[in-house]
Amino acid sequence: MNLISTLKGSLLENFFPEGWDLAKIDACCANPPESITERQSWWNKKFAPVPCETVADFDMMMGHEIALTIKQSKDAGEEIIFILPVGPMGMYRWAVYFLTEWDVDCKHVHGFNMDEWSDEDGNTLAPSDPGAFQNAMQDAFYGPLRKLTVPKKQRHFATKISLPKYGEQIGELRSKGARLVVVFGIGRVMHIAFWEPHFAAEYKSVEEWKKPTHRIGAKLHPLTIEQNAITSFKSRTTLVPCRANTIGPGLFLGADKIIGGCDGALNRGMMWQGLSLWVTLRHGPSPWIPSSFMPTQAGKLFFLTELAGPLAAECN
After folding, report:
1. For the chain, counts of helices (H) and of strands (E)
2. Residue 12 lies in a domain
3. Which domain holds residue 283?
4. In a domain, 17, yes or no
């Protein structure tokens, strides 16, 4: 007896995105933990999942990857574009540490935050609001870099005025030789940024789904709201906005390099991200599983080893 066998007639019967094959999703999670890094046919040859034993390891290793990528572009005399998330966050402290130790400035870096909370019209929280992603980036990355930081004119945030310009701005930078790096986490519903799985119903083909660069005032899935209540709002669901401005596949699937991270373990064996990690790596590309496209790009996905499971019942 499980969710699938008891779904009919329940309050969850029409809750999940209509394109989800729950049996296939469950099968993705039934593999042995030690097999999680086994290569799949659809993965990019230069994509690799990277296990991290502890949160401290995860933060340091992912932060090092970000800092090293910035340093390498600096050494090569190249401009570089970073699409940046708020979540995960711990890697920014280490990125700052390494860049400071190496005395690498970020004048060549162009930062584009991938999303921001909004209302239905795309209005966003004040930049100083403790829940605002712009505030989080200032506190975690741009501020601590001090004299080495990214110039203010090269920091972009997902407001209703700025976000629609991302595609053109990034395109112009790339036309001049800049590389695009997408840093990301994976949502409970396997979203990237706030590009939710239910958006797939609006597109007639995968190719059409891949085109949008952004969405203003996007409707978020209830699981996304509850995920963020747990991870960012101290369990207080009523503080979480129901909408967000977000980049789309037209940007996050165009990376020269990806740097992903899954650190969604809690305590006492509890977690929220094990299923999301397994489905990302094993499902195969589908617009109903946005994160499933990320392994088709070159780069690394850092993850807590604990998330590999086994994903089995354990009463807490």
Report:
1. 10, 10
2. no
3. 61-308
4. no
Identity at 177, one-letter amino acid code:
G
Decide: helix, strand or coil at residue 53: coil
* Residue 273 to residues 91, 185, 186, 199, 308, Cα–Cα distance (Å): 17, 10, 8, 21, 9
As for how many domains the chain has, the answer is 1
Q: How far is CA 90 from CA 63, 139, 149, 188, 274, in A?
A: 8, 12, 18, 19, 19
Q: Kindly give the interhelix angle for 55-75 and 91-102, rounded to the nearest 10 degrees.
A: 40
> Residue-wise pLDDT tens for the chain (316 aa)?
999 999 999 999 999 999 999 999 999 999 999 999 999 999 999 999 999 999 999 999 999 999 999 999 999 999 999 999 999 999 999 999 999 999 999 999 999 999 999 999 999 999 999 999 999 999 999 999 999 999 999 999 999 999 999 999 999 999 999 999 999 999 999 999 999 999 999 999 999 999 999 999 999 999 999 999 999 999 999 999 999 999 999 999 999 999 999 999 998 999 999 999 999 999 999 999 999 999 999 999 999 999 999 999 999 8
Residues composing the chain: 316
Cα separation of 245 and 251, whole Å?
Answer: 14
- Domain presence at residue 177: yes
Q: CA 224 to CA 65: how far, in whole Å?
A: 27
Strand residue runs (E) in 161-213: 179-185
Distance, CA of 285 to CA of 14 (rounded, Å): 23
CA 81 to chain centre: 16
Chain-centroid distance of CA 115 in Å reads 10
Tell me the CATH number at 260. Answer: 3.40.50.1360
pTM higher than 0.90, yes or no? Answer: yes
Note whether residue 257 is domain-resident.
yes
